[in-house]
Design goal:
It is a single chain. By secondary structure, this protein is an alpha/beta fold. It has 2 domains: 122 residues, Rossmann fold (3-Layer(aba) Sandwich); 125 residues, Rossmann fold (3-Layer(aba) Sandwich), CATH 3.40.50. The protein is built from 10 helices and 10 strands. It has a 5-stranded parallel β-sheet. The protein has a 5-stranded mixed β-sheet with strand order 3-7-6-4-5. Helix 3 packs parallel to helix 4 and helix 8 packs parallel to helix 9. The radius of gyration is 20 Å and the shape is elongated.
């Protein structure tokens, strides 16, 4: 591997910390490694089953009553498919549904099971989902499958637009306490990362919690890279700055933003 940046390995020499859940980190990690980066993976977030699947199972058992299905993450899609199998249901019970996915990763998780996605917003955030749907849902019943803790923009705004919407939890995100000593040692050590990536507001909040307030000053010379404006807003809420922000709110967009910043720094 080259020791200095090249056109094909522009991130050579860059140490980049990623904090996605272990089972989700490969796309981001592999993309950065291909461009020459040294990737350090310490999860800031852990995905778990909700305490109860009762509400989700009840909704899935009544799919015939819904007009729209909205999924806001690949995690939600995978959890939903698991419950459908448990209930001995499949895509045949969903063919009447209009399906909306918040972004390409969620769309892929839906379509690989043979279900067609009708709507993906132009920007992969809740506000864009609302803008695309608000003129289509008056008098319609909607099932929104999401994480336990999530922004309420979609249900609030679509109810204002006249929809009858049920919100059910498919999974929850928790703090991986085992990451705390590893993260603190890395940030305080002699070779901290050049860049830390954040792929959701939850990763930001958990990172700050795991790092501890006394160690925030150690971030002074570390760039914080955000997948989009919502995540950047959470950084600002916690008195941190998104030095890098993706224009396309995907893993590929985040990687491109880091590469562009790396080139700009060398000019």
């Amino acid at each position: 591997m080259p020791t200095t940046p090249t056109a094909t390995h522009p991130l050579t020499g860059q140490r980049i910390l990623i904090g996605r859940a272990r089972h989700q980190s490969s796309t981001l990690a592999d993309g950065l490694k291909m461009l020459g980066a040294q990737v350090i993976a310490i999860p800031f977030i852990e995905i778990r089953k909700p305490r109860s699947f009762t509400a989700l199972d009840r909704a899935l058992g009544n799919l015939k009553n819904y007009d729209w299905l909205i999924l806001t993450s690949a995690n939600g899609a995978e959890s939903m498919w698991g419950r459908l199998r448990k209930l001995k249901l499949d895509k045949r019970h969903m063919k009447h549904l209009h399906v909306a996915a918040i972004g390409p990763a969620t769309k892929k998780a839906i379509e690989k099971r043979g279900l067609k996605v009708e709507l993906v917003p132009d920007e992969y955030v809740a506000e864009s989902v609302v803008n695309k749907l608000k003129d289509k849902v008056k008098g319609k019943r909607i099932l929104l499958v999401r994480a336990k803790v999530a922004r309420d923009i979609i249900p609030v705004e679509l109810r204002k637009a006249g929809a009858d919407i049920d919100v059910v939890e498919a999974y929850e995100t928790v703090l991986p306490n085992a990451s705390r000593p590893r993260l603190q040692k890395l940030i305080k050590g002699p070779r901290p990362p050049h860049v830390v990536t954040f792929t959701s507001s939850s990763t930001v909040r958990n990172f700050v919690d795991l790092l501890g307030g006394a160690n925030k000053k150690k971030l002074k010379n570390i760039k914080l890279a955000s997948i989009g404006p919502v995540t950047s807003g959470t950084l600002r809420e916690l008195n941190l700055t998104a030095n890098i922000e993706a224009r396309e709110f995907t893993m590929g967009g985040l990687i491109r933003a880091i590469v562009i910043d790396s080139f700009a720094e060398k000019l």
